## 1
Amino acid sequence: MAVIVFMHAFGSSGRAWQPQIRQLGDSHRVLAPDLPGHGATPGPFSLERAVASIRSVILGEAEPVHLVAVSGSVSVALLVALAEPAQVAGLILSGGTAHGGRGDAVQRLMVRLMPEGLIVSILKGMYAGGKAEHLDQAAQDLRHAGKATILAGLAELGRLDLRDRLGEIKVPALVLNGAKDKANLPHAEEIAAGIHGAEHRVIPNAGHIWNLEQPELFTRTIHEFVRAVSAPSPSSTRA
């Protein structure tokens, strides 16, 4: 039974993966930990603490795991794969980045000046393509994480640059991006180009958090990837 570790967006929580957990839980071991400062996990948030939290999860598993990450947690997944290559069987990465952009400082300043209620109102729009219950849940998670955690995540991503290290990742990787999430398309292309053998797919009519917009397609994509990666190679079959 393959192990799948779901990694949520910054400001969210592990429960954002409920559609996938429900569908895949019978055939796979599924884990959806809350990152530091999110859900049930105490803060403060930092990339170092986030990576350590995921490393502790996967090092407790007998077999290498598949990491499925969206948005900010894509950077965490990349760092985990670099730190624990023997414990990662595959990567599914959606809507993330391997480095900060020139507009990050401006974005952080704008968020710092906004009241928390406005931040929640703006960020929950990333979940608007899902059901009403997902939008309500996203707002709850964002309020629980709070402004300080959201700012910490933005600051950490702004300082990050993994472009020169992507070639060190040797596991199968599927890099995804919603077609409507235009700002992250160049980042997805960059990650896919940097990881040897990675596949890049643009998902039609999908936004940033599209595992809730198109849950059946996202779940099927995970299932097919894990099955393909887990299948024995022809040489091992002949042996």
## 2
Amino acid sequence: MAFAAFKISQVTWTQENPKEFKSSPRARRLFCGTCGSQLGMQYDESEDIIYLPITSLDNPDTAPPQRHIYWPEHRSWLQLADTLPRHAKGTIED
């Protein structure tokens, strides 16, 4: 899944705030309490950053990938031909 990273201060929910689910020891997934659609993700190590699925953006083409995060955790069968940087963690500053 492709996400765009934003500082929390850059994001405003226009409807009700999303529900949260602690999906792992280090992350929370944000979702719509009505339909269950995933609306975002936050990692405990970078609380001031929110990751929004690019499919939730009005124009996903305005958010082309710039890097791959949590690369050591990728599946062994995933082979990408791009030359984007690969990071062990995921923050805007990486």
